[in-house]
Amino acid sequence: MSDFGNPAGFDIATVLTGSGLTLLLSAGITTYGDQFQYSPAELYGLSGVALVVLGVLFGLLLVLTGNR
């Protein structure tokens, strides 16, 4: 039986959660971006780098613990 949550080769729940997190960050930057010393483009870049680093670290943790 195929995995219902993984029909296209990727986990739909993970994609939806990541998309929701990205939209929340975008909304926060749009709303409160002028209160920081960085421009909105820089804030988007910093949040993108932070998400990539968290994703890589979490992926490495999963590999090291034998869960992937």
UniProtKB/TrEMBL annotation:
Keywords: Membrane, Transmembrane, Transmembrane helix
Chain ranges passing through the membrane: 12-32, 44-64
Name of the protein in question: Transporter
